[in-house]
Amino acid sequence: MFQALLLTRSDEGATQAAVTELDASRLPEGEVRIDVAYSTVNYKDALAITGRSPVVRKFPMVPGIDFAGTVAESADARFAPGDAVLLNGWGVGETHWGGLAQQARVKADWLLPIPDGLDARQCMAIGTAGYTAMLCVMALQERGVAPAAGPVLVTGANGGVGSIAVALLARLGFEVHASTGRLGEAAHLRQLGAAEVIDRTPLGAPGKPLQKERWAAAIDSVGSHTLANICASLKYGGTVAACGLAQGLDLPASVAPFILRGVTLAGIDSVYAPLARRRTAWQRLAHELPQDLLEANTRTVGLGEAAALAPRLLAGEVRGRVRVDLGA
To answer: How many CB atoms lie within 10 A of CB 26?
Structure first.
């Protein structure tokens, strides 16, 4: 038997979340069973738990789009009992039971060994948000963005992706401008490495197709008018790595920044990224992310507290990362 946060749907269609004791026989199919040590609460998890977006494709569902733990049983030669592993994405927590449980069973192809330099606790301080932030940084660097090009904007800077993106970029020598709706957290953002903290409000309003050139590049987890304004404000040849939709799925923009300034809009998918790219991202995270800053940016809760945090996370009231200790 093990405990899990189980999502069910009422007769009226409302999503209900409750910590439930389950038998291991109820776990979905997969070659590897894991004793989960830590998971996280990400933006997508919060959408699933609250039912505010149709993230969950079938019920009942265990949410949690990532986890880290130890292999308990394996029918795949690549993994043996006792191996330390982690998982991000692949539809876990959406179509396949996820990480907010003390046990999980998944396909071996979805797992990565925890890289040297990290343990399960540290991996879930990073989680999918930090892994996505690194994918964004990699996308900018692959398109030639370097510190000498000028400042880099990070939106949603107090959130999971944004906060770790600020820390990564600063560590790499970039001048980071952090956009947030919580200016009271400016000191925390500066501790992470932000050189300038700006109010998100102007970026979130409708703007002109082309605006003053301000940033060499950007990492955006917000979408909608914010992303449109970023594209309109990038320097010639600039790149924005887009990975989120906190403001909306729409993109009310024009082609002007792309055909007049050579701006690149690089989409970042963390769910189905190839394993080789995942390994690179996690290896870099193990060596480039300051662990002291990471821990200061992370709050640890027990499984019973995870569901209550979901609406607060969607409201932008949760700073940094939320790690869930499945043994607490």
So the answer is: 15
pLDDT tens for 222-236 read: 999 999 999 999 999
C-alpha to C-alpha distance for 240 and 320, rounded to whole angstroms: 21
Buried b (16+ CB within 10 A) or exposed e, 272-288: ebeeeebeebbbebbee
| Separation of alpha carbons 135 and 144, rounded Å | 15
Residue 67: strand, helix, or coil: strand
Query: pLDDT by residue (tens digit) across 32-75?
Result: 999 999 999 999 999 999 998 889 999 999 999 999 999 999 99
Q: Is the pTM value of this prediction over 0.85?
A: yes
Please state, in angstroms and rounded to a whole number, the distance separating the CA atoms of residues 227 and 215.
Answer: 13
Tokens of 152: 């880099």
Phi and psi of 97, rounded to 5°? -55, 140
Domains of the chain: 2-114+297-325 (3.90.180.10), 128-267 (3.40.50.720)
Task: In whole angstroms, give the CA distance from residue 43 to residue 90.
Answer: 16
pLDDT of residue 297: 87
